[in-house]
Amino acid sequence: MSTPATPAASIPTFEQHFGRAPQVTASAPGRVNLLGEHTDYQGGFVLPTAIPQVTTVALGANGTREHRVFAADLNEQSTFPVGGNAEGGFARYVAGTLALGGAPDGLDVHVTSNVPMGAGLSSSAALEVAVLRGLRDLGILDASDERVALIAQRVEHEFVGVQCGIMDQMASSVANSTTMLLLDTRSLERHLLPLPAASEVLVIDSGVPRKLAESGYNERRAQVEEAARLLGVTELRDVQDPQSVEALPEPLRERARHVVSENARVQAALAEGGVDAARFGVLMNASHASLRDDYAVSHPRVDALVALLQAHPDVFGARMTGAGFGGAVVALVRAGQAGAVAQAVLSQYGPEGRQVVP
Ligand code: NG1
Ligand code: MG
Questions:
Q1: Could you confirm whether 168 is annotated as catalytic?
Q2: Most CB within 10 Å of its CB: which of 107, 164, 174, 252?
Q3: Protein residue with least CA distance to atom 5, ligand 1
């Protein structure tokens, strides 16, 4: 089972690094998306759940016009002016969050996280939401959980340069790990639903770094916006006849086909009342094939890991999760079998794989 790579004692605390106690601490979880991938920027329905791993921040005013952000796990500090951006890397997320969260004066920020980075598990949303919760606890920000998510999304758009949807930030802000969040990414209407009966969620990191994730993401987004324009709809969620996408030129046809079929898969998963694990698993498998073949955002190693999972008798279904181009895979497995499934699959996959959840 997963144990922290570094004992907590070796990571400097806020007190040790900044020489005084913080004013507040706050946390937010990462998320894994079960179904509804690459639809949250086309008004689609998504089904993420929070993972147990969290990002924790400690904050305290420093009496200057600069923010100082200390990434304790990396032992790295970044300093930047109040309201400004930071020089690349992880500090941009904090800089953007402090700026859009309205921090008026310099803050010292201490960050620790056990959300795997760059695995499609929303380490960035967890960081943004944790900092916004900290600003809320300091009395600097007065915002609902929904507005916290919307501010966090603006950080990605305006400070990081990823034109992402709202799934990750909403999941980090309102989901929990014992239910799945059904989110309408257009209206933000949401319901916490029970996970499929007699099953559990297994997440394995493929160990493939998500190299093309940012550029590939913005390119896909532009392609499906163009597809929606050609089809005369505001967003692909509004496509009434799935056959209409077949008239589009390639690759817009394949990209739109994924978004439209993926949205239908979420609705199929929830049809007929209760959420059945076997039916949910079949839809997860179909989602993976669609992301691999039509959306072209998978990776050969991720495909290999998904195939090993899908072949295991205690697995209902498995797919890549998050933006893709590497990163984690999610499987729905028979209750109580996640550890055994992970062990069997990882021994065939190779040493770079790692069980992340449970
Ligand atoms: P990940 O893979 O967690 O970065 C990205 C987007 C989401 C969503 C998924 C694909 C960011 C911050 N988030 O998630 O909004 O579009 O891809 O479903 O880029
Ligand atoms: Mg991210």
A1: yes
A2: 107
A3: 323
